[in-house]
Amino acid sequence: MKLADVLRKECIAVNARLPNKSEALREVARLAKNSGVIESVGERDILAALEARESLGSTGVGKGVAIPHCRLKSVEDFVVGIVTVPSGVDFDALDAEKVRLIVFIVAPEVVSNKHVRLLSVISQRLLAPNALEDILAGQTPDDVYDRFLRGRDVDIDDRERVAKSLIHVFIQSEDVFRDILQILTGVESGSLVVVGAENAGVYLSKLPLFASFWSDEPSNFSRIIVAVVDKNLTNETVRRIESVAGDLHESTGVMVTVQDVDYAAGSLST
After folding, report:
1. CA–CA separation, 255 and 78 (whole Å)
2. What are the tens digits of pLDDT across the range 214-237?
3. What is the topology classification, in CATH, of domain 3-149?
């Protein structure tokens, strides 16, 4: 997928005057409807989805930029548009500055990984030196389109990702920790990191209210192994942990949690 394919010239407005955030979102919804990609979706539905996303936290990311976005079930392809607001609009931005450039995304609901990568590409573009002022200098939709792409088409990596699991192993025995760490290094395509920690008892024993529960100094050994593995290796990873720790439903001193990962990129060296 290329950024030029989803940045729609018909969804670009130049030198808009917007009194507040609510009107800015209305303008975004209106512009999004200009694209034939989302003909089946009403402007009110787009606005409602944008407002629902804003209720989770402002997409005014700071330094004069906002990237409002939403996902809709009936949308089959991405729609990216731009609104330049040279005089600025209050957008509840993270740094409280007025927003002068709005780059919006209306996305299909079922491709969240591509949505994340598209957000990343747009963010990187706006971090380029003088990018904001350069784009704001555009006086026509075509000009803004060209300035945003800056003469080069940007590829958005839309390769299918292997599903991943995030595994946390909480361990309170140094010997068991060493054995589990050793066997987990052999899990194919896994990334591991160890986080130092302390048991809560170390702190609770120093509080007068709880001091009587410990006659000896509580053990302060505690480690967390964080592993990212291919989802199809999750059961094998847990089986390896149990080969050291025993049945996790009966053992103490070791706890394992497993979560599905919506998005994972990059790797860690051991």
Report:
1. 41
2. 666 666 789 999 999 988 999 999
3. Mannitol-specific EII; Chain A (3.40.930)
